[in-house]
Structure formats: C-alpha cells, structure tokens
Design goal:
Elements: E1 25-28, E2 32-38, H1 42-47, E3 62-68, E4 74-83, E5 86-92, H2 96-104, E6 113-116, E7 120-125, H3 129-136, E8 143-146, E9 149-155, E10 158-163, H4 165-175, E11 180-182, H5 185-193, H6 230-238, E12 244-252, E13 262-267, E14 270-282, E15 287-295, E16 304-306, E17 314-316
Parallel strand pairs: 1-11
Antiparallel strand pairs: 1-7, 2-5, 2-6, 3-4, 4-5, 7-10, 8-9, 9-10, 12-15, 12-17, 13-14, 13-16, 14-15
C-alpha cells in the first residue's frame, strides 16, 4: 500500500520481459525522498557541494548530479530542479539518514535551510504521460510549477510530480480509472532501461561518479570549479584513473537481485567477483535486468552470473556512449 493513501493500492505490475509497458501508469515513489534547499545562499552553497553546475540551471531544467565525500566517492546521486522558492533534490530514501546530515554539515555558515520535504512523490509514465501532463497542468518546459508543487520531465515517457498531500490524493483519484497504479518498481525498470544510475545504502561511498557513467548523463561539470571530491573526479577524466563503468545486464533468477549483491564473471574455468549490483528489476517470467558496476576493460563476450546461482547473465547495449570516459 502507498504510504500516503489509504484508498488506492499501488503494487508491482506483473510484466514479462516481452510485455509492452503501460501506456499510462501512476507510480507511488515511496522509495524516493526529496530534500529542499531554501534561502539566499542556496545556489552558492550547493554549487560548492555537488558535481553538476547549479549556477547555470534554469527554471525550466533539471539535472542529475552527485554529492561526494572528500575522496570523490559518491554519497548520493540526485535529480535537481527548481521547486517552489528553492531547489528540490530527489534521491533514494535509503541513504537519506546518512547523506542529509553531510549535505547540511556546513550550512550553518550560509543563509540556506536544508530539510527533508513532506511532499508526496509520484511518477507518471508511458506514451500518454505527456498528454496527461498537458491536460492536468499545462505550462511549458521540462520543469513546471503546478499547484502546491512541481512537475519534472525525466524523459520522453516519464514525469516526476512532487506535490502536497491533498493535491496528490486529488490527482491520484482523478487518474485511478485511466492509469495503471504501480509501486516504484516500474520506475526502477525505466531507470535501468535508460541506464540512469543511483546510490542506495548498500552502494554508498563505493563508486566515484565516472564509475556509474555520470559523465555520460550530463551529471558532471568540468568547468564549474571546486566542489567536494572534485580533485578525484578531475583525475578520473584527465589521467584515466577510473577503471570501472556501469552496464546493463540480463539473465534468469528466482529472486530479484538487491543493491550491493555480487555479480561474478568467468575467468577460465573459475568464477570471480566481477561487479556490484546497483539496481535490478525482476519480470514475472523469471527474467531480470539490472545495472551493475564492472571493470571497464572486460571482453564483450564475458559471461556473468549472480553469486551462488548457475544461470548465465550477459551485457546489453547502453543507450548512450562511454567514449568520453577517459
């Protein structure tokens, strides 16, 4: 059940690997959380903390970015956008308790208030999503101020909606008869298919940004100047120190892999740990698809398996290029 509605039932949709995705789905993003940053120093403060260029982010744009520690290891990957009188900072709920205090650590020296939002987070997905956004909210651009919140275009078939509880309940009630209701696993599937990285509690402080392809999804600015972890990120680009990348893999499994699980690779007649599961989705027919961090110099025909299982997994093509990784 949804954490904010006692009436509507948001549950995992039974999809096989061959099924088309719903033309319209309303997704309860209960596994995600929103941070808000408000105050006259919000832009300058965040600019010195994260990999993306906050200063150039216009009101009708959103961007992916990362918040790293001093060694360049990621605490979180987020989507940033203008929200009400400040910024909205969308990230996984599982790392909120550890990452939020780190983001706030130096805020006492700036005029900025950083808090977790009580907004309800919904996703609207499918080929009819744009049509519904136009009908319900109107406006222009990829980020739109709406009653009591914001609508953010994520890709051609996805919108994020961050609104107050009353507006979320009204919208869900209105769309319940025309949209499939889903839990956040449908959003996971879209992210995996589009190779959009994330950091959960099990993978916090494990990867540098380029090891999850952030340079390929415009989540790193190499022109903005200093921020926490910037030296490591710059060395990864200009000195080629990064030896990992994120890939899409697919295979059979009885249970959905979890973030942090090991993916083994074949080495001769033996198996060794090859990478770490970042996110995964299991279809109803025992097929699964996942994002995994792997060495970036493996042969294209490398074979993989989940630790403790026999079924073979294989890499799928990425929807973007990693050629600029070095």
């Amino acid at each position: 059940m949804s954490t904010w509605s006692n009436v509507l039932n948001f549950k995992k949709i039974a999809l096989t690997a061959q099924d088309s995705l719903p033309e319209l789905a309303l997704v309860d993003l209960a596994d995600w959380g929103l941070i808000t940053l408000i105050g006259e120093d919000k832009k300058s403060y965040l600019q010195g903390q994260v990999t993306c260029d906050v200063a150039t982010l216009t009101a009708d744009q959103s961007t992916l970015g990362a918040h790293c520690d001093a060694k360049g290891k990621m605490r979180t990957i987020f989507r940033l956008f203008h929200h009400r009188d400040g910024y909205g900072f969308l990230q996984r709920q599982s790392i909120m308790a550890t990452q939020l205090p780190e983001l706030k650590k130096y805020a006492i020296f700036s005029k900025v208030d950083i808090e977790q939002s009580n907004d309800v987070l919904l996703g609207l997905t499918g080929s009819k999503a744009n049509e519904v956004i136009e009908r319900e909210f109107g406006g222009e651009g990829d980020v739109r101020a709406i009653t009591a919140g914001t609508a953010v275009k994520v890709d051609e078939q996805r919108w994020l909606i961050a609104v107050a509880t009353a507006q979320a309940e009204a919208l869900a009630g209105k769309l319940a008869t025309e949209a499939v209701l889903s839990d956040s696993t449908l959003w996971d599937l879209y992210d995996i298919q589009h190779a959009i990285p994330r950091v959960d509690a099990a993978t916090e402080l494990e990867f540098i940004p380029q090891a999850m392809n952030l340079q390929a999804v415009d989540a790193i600015s190499f022109k903005k100047g200093c921020y926490t972890g910037q030296e490591t990120v710059a060395r990864a680009k200009y000195r080629g120190i990064n030896k990992r990348a994120m890939y899409i893999v697919s295979g059979n499994t009885e249970h959905c892999p979890q973030p942090g699980d090991a993916l083994e690779r074949s080495v001769g007649e033996n198996w060794r740990k090859g990478g770490t599961i970042i996110s995964a989705y299991k279809f109803a027919d025992s097929q699964a698809i996942a994002l995994v961090g792997l060495p970036n110099d493996l042969d294209e025909d490398s074979q993989f398996r989940l630790a403790g299982q026999d079924a073979s997994w294989h890499k799928l093509p990425l929807p973007y290029s990693l050629e600029d990784d070095q």
